Structures
1.
Amino acid sequence: MLTIDALRRFGANTEEGLGRCLNNEAFYLRLVNMSLQDAGFDKLASAVESDDRKAAFEAAHALKGSLGNLALTPIYTPVAELTELLRGGQDADYKAMLGTILRQRAELLALCEG
Amino acid sequence: MLECCQKIQFDHGIRRILVVEDDLINREILSLMLRDTYDILIAETGKQALELLESDYGTLSLVLLDLNLPDMKGVDILGRIKGNALTARLPVIVMTADQNAEVECLTLGATDFISKPYPKQEIVLARIRRTIEQFEDRDIIRWTERDQLTGLYNREFFYRYAAQHDEHHPEEPTDAIVLDINHFHMVNERYGKEFGDRVLRLVAEKLRAKVSDSDGIVCRKEDDTFLIYCLHRSDYGQILDGVCMQMETDYQIRARMGVYPDVDRGIDMERRFDRAKQAADAVKNSYSQTVGFYDNAMHEKELYLEQLLEDFHTAIREKQFTVFYQPKFDVRPDEPVLCSTEALARWRHPKLGLISPGVFIPLFEKNGLIRELDSFVWREAVAQIRTWEERLGRLIPVSVNVSRIDLNDPPLLKILEKTVDEAGIGRESILLEITESAYTDNAEQIINVVKSLRESGFFIEMDDFGTGFSSLNMITTLPIDALKLDIQFIRTAFRDRKDTRLLETVIRLAQSLGLSTIAEGVETEEQMLTLKALGCDVVQGYYFSKPLPADEFEAFAREKCRWPGN
């Protein structure tokens, strides 16, 4: 079961995330769990795989909002980076970046299940 | 139609906020932050947001808007909110992590931003509270600056905004426009006030739609008069055509417009619209021309009238005004007998020559100077009565005008009593001519004033009878001694095909009420004899004599007339 300590060890800025949730730990942890189930990850993966940059940008942008609010820094940071690169229409190794994002998500999911 | 008086409905004092956010987690966090302070409506899509705005706009205090929605862009929703008169008053705070979007949002009317990730709850609440307070203050101001029927500016605020318009457009030619609906008082009478109000709202809506595209402002000044201040344009005929609608009844809205183009910014705002009003009045009775323009001729006339106003006090001081006297004859005896005279002011201006009373009297009536002029004439007249009494050996009563402005002046009775008493003549020597139209201004007030004058011993003549909205009620309720038939009344009766039936009816009516009748403007023997035959008591006009200077009148009196009893 996910705990605040585990999240902190994962690298999340729990003080900030909890602050937005008015220090309601149960509420915060519930939202973190929900965020990992977000269909946006699948959309992002599918769009990056098919090199649909517009769809990839929209999915990344949406994820960035909620991940940022929960202060899940290890996932938020690569998602934010990916979003800005896609916004600028720059060429980059998006698949590698997607890999990082999905790995961080899997790590956090494992914490939730462990 | 903008409902300026739309009041936000509060449930137990709690403001309601519409949160437009598609992301579940963001919605949850925001709800947690806001729910103890605000009542929250949630829209997850753009479509839902628009539906809620339409159904609940009256209950909302603020919109929190996410820019990325699944079905439409947040900026489009913002544009729809600000473009709809019903929702435009709502403040919108945009939630975004994208600083590039801020400029566009501000341009479209966003009030503030909340960044993503969200700042602390205290900051979010403070921003929302401040924005709501600002907008509610603005709503209160909007309440006071608007005409509640039409939502247009009222006069006072309109002039202020017009001045601001000048500041925003310092170099651009700007026009002042007055629009009046023709015969609007009849619309209310014929179709009812509710219909009349609907006409006014429709006209307001048309004008606002037409004018707003050129950065202009519109105001309902009073009743059916609208003012427009806008950058110079040339499609006023089209604007007027747009206003002149056929209603579902037989009624067709008709209006006239006066334009003062490329206003002179050296003169004050109200005067600019006075000029536009002059232009509108110039086409008042024209069926074909419904847009009038303030032009050089009007400008010259305005300057002329201004000079008259400026010179008034000098003229009084230097005795440029003189009093002429037109004889009045009692036509009841076999031979007409001089019975009194009417005092008429004349102005011999040192530079402008003889000025017609038809010009200066309406001008002085308009701004109150007529009181001073009337007082001057009264003093001259009583002095003249005394002089003639001494020189001719008998009293010649003099009629003097008492304008409607005088009638509203509380000390009128005292002034008249003092004037007459100081000259040492009886009050019956002064006949006070009160214009018929004064009665329609304020009947009750006039009745009271006339009563007090009559009780004090003055004779009262109702002047200009038959020119305005003469009513039987008026001549039965006003305590008067004589009815003076207007010159136009006489002219109409003796026009090409002589028809004196109405004249006869009025004279009989006066007789039945115990009133004398006086006919003015009588020019021929035929007219005089007909009036005499119809039972008219007194006749005045060029047939007997034009108005004369005092010395000539004295000679006239000596030479031509015999006195009753002589």
2.
Amino acid sequence: MSATVALPGFTDPVGEAQATFRAVLDAMARPGRLNRVGAQLTAPAPLDQATAAVLLTLVDNETPLWLEPLVAAAGDWLAFHCGASIVDMPGNAAFALALSLPDLEALSAGSHEAPESSATLILQIGALGSGTRYRLSGPGLREPTLLASNGLPADFAAVWQRNHALYPRGVDIILCAGTTLTALPRSVSIEEA
Amino acid sequence: MAYVTVKGGEQAIDNAHAWLAEERRGDQAVPELSLAQIEGQLGRSVDRAMGEGSLYDRELAALAVKQAQGDLIEAAFLLRAYRTTLPRFAHSLPADTSAMQIRRRISAVFKDLPGGQVLGPTYDYTHRLLDFGLADGDAAVVGPCGGETMTAMPRVPDILGDEGLIEHDGNGEAEPGDLTRQPLTFPAARDMRLQALARGDEGFLLALGYSTQRGYGGTHPFAGEIRMGEVSVEIEPPELGFAIDIGDITVTECQMVNQFKGSKTAPPQFTRGYGLVFGFSERKAMAMALVDRAMRAEELGEEVTAPAQNVEFVLYHADNIEATGFVEHLKLPHYVDFQSELENVRRLKREVTRMTESAEAAE
Amino acid sequence: MPDAVPPEQPHAARRRWIAVLARSDAAELCERLGTLPAYRVLRGPEAGLVMVRGRTGGGGAPFNLGEMTATRCSVRTDAGCVGHAYIAGRNERLAELAALTDALLQDPTRQNALMEEVIEPLAAMQQARRDAVSAKAAATRVQFFAMRNMRS
């Protein structure tokens, strides 16, 4: 068993999981809003605290998880603390974890009968709140809001709009940096600001 | 259809709960029931709550039985609700009933089978005479005496199987479906049917099983073997990478043997029904095996005519928590619906009266 | 109990002591362990569910029978051994003690003493309980050919 497993998970599993879940829910309902989670966690490298908190909260042995190669080191910790079953093919995953935007079309976009069966991408980036600015509009936003982030690819807005066009199918993204997270549900529209 | 919120009922509900607590406790001069007493002395109630609640935990089931004042469907309901608060760690390796520590093992098809007829703590020979000695309490209990060691207990299907007279269990290590994770769809595969029967209402299954014996479908069953005892449960945690034994559970298993005439392609063979339930629940295991076999009618090329053979009918109505949910929902306010029905009936009555009156006036 | 572990079953000894620990009583185990060494909990103790599976017909394809409660715990001793426990029922104290014992048993310098003082006595008690049940069951086996003298 690897050394990372020796790192504990949530110290208060019920309280911290509840608080993290609430934060993710809030972020999905109000796209672009920044929430703080995971401040108590010791995350296994190369994961940030928010990323680790989101995974501990959402992933279990019934939600197949795909890890991009760069985060494979955290696999043992995730398998131990979440009971995660790790899959090879991104298309079979309910959750995908990456440090840079993967090909969204390789992830499951759900079906018309069950759009919710799509994958959720947990994307860890350099920073939230500073960097390239995007304008978000759509459900949950009375007026468009600005999201600043560091670490998304240059053509992100175009890539996202292709995903957005699949609605009600599509992939949702939870962006994590440090102890901050925000969410981009498929219903939101993104353009460069 | 809208349900009207009940305002001003909070006080009434609080008082209802207070009265319920009082009724549940009963006469304060009488000692309160302990969970150990229920678990130890009302084991069959505990077994039924576990089976239909689909949660094996004797202490929790005893608590549910106490809280429900002995209403076993209510107790099963409590257990079903409680299990939603617990995370699932793993599924077990399939339990090996041939390695069971036998408490009871009988067969109606072979008299002197290997391992013998072991009666266990059965009611079968009690003549159903009320024992007023139990009413006095504190009667000295003398356990069974003498007894050599147990010998090997091969399964009856294997004994018959050696001669090729009985259908095999079937192969496959396919991942079974799970009713707690996916809704029941039809046609329902055998694994889903068995899961549904195992958690189904004992009374419903008993009646259906009985119906097959009375001619509503049915193929002359024999109780090939019934065994009851402890089986060990094993899981394979990923952090260990090998299977470990986490403890024992008590189960009852029933093999029903039914005759099949054979066809152009299949030689004449005995066909089977299977029952497996938590606890010492022999009646349910037997009923489950009868209904399991009945539901295989179509697969075995038999005409589907009877309720027990109708897979949708059986599986949609077997779960008593689902059944009671819908039956008891009728208690919820249906004021608006009823109001509109009331208006309809009054209007029709007025029309009939008017037509009768104008018909009389015309004469 | 085998002194040498057969190559086909590399974990036979550990599987055996895990099975014994899972069936033990927390107070009994605690008493036999004596002073507990320093350790840290990695996960749990937490209660959860195990879906019990049976086989169609008793030997065929698996099906889900129903869930049972289970408690698990993983600990790491200061000496660096990691122990795990999964036990039937809801018993956080037993799960933690069993995980600790599993960790301690993996230390070659302590294994023999622990096997002798903790595992073997518990295993013997558990076997005695099983034997008692077996004897009662055997007493209820019908002796079809038992004859009784009609004359005294």
